[in-house]
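Example record

One chain of 84 residues, shown exactly as stored in the release files.
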Amino acid sequence: MTKTLFVGNLPWVATEEDLAAFFGALGALKGARVVTEPETGRSRGYGFIEVDEDIAARALAMHGHNIGGRRIIVGEVGPGPPLA
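Predicted structure tokens for this chain:
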């Protein structure tokens, strides 16, 4: 089963590739998305990852770790549409 996790407090310069690389070290990701401003393309400082259930617990344990000098927030979200 796939779980969607919220990742907050990302550095403004973080990309989807950065997010995928950070969490990809735990195992294969199904998807990674950084939410951006529509007009400017600038990051809003948060995103989402989709992982298998067996990787989700390890990803949630990354709460409080640093990415680019910022302590990230990782939490589980409810069901929603899959990442494209």
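Notes: The chain is about 20% helix and 40% strand.
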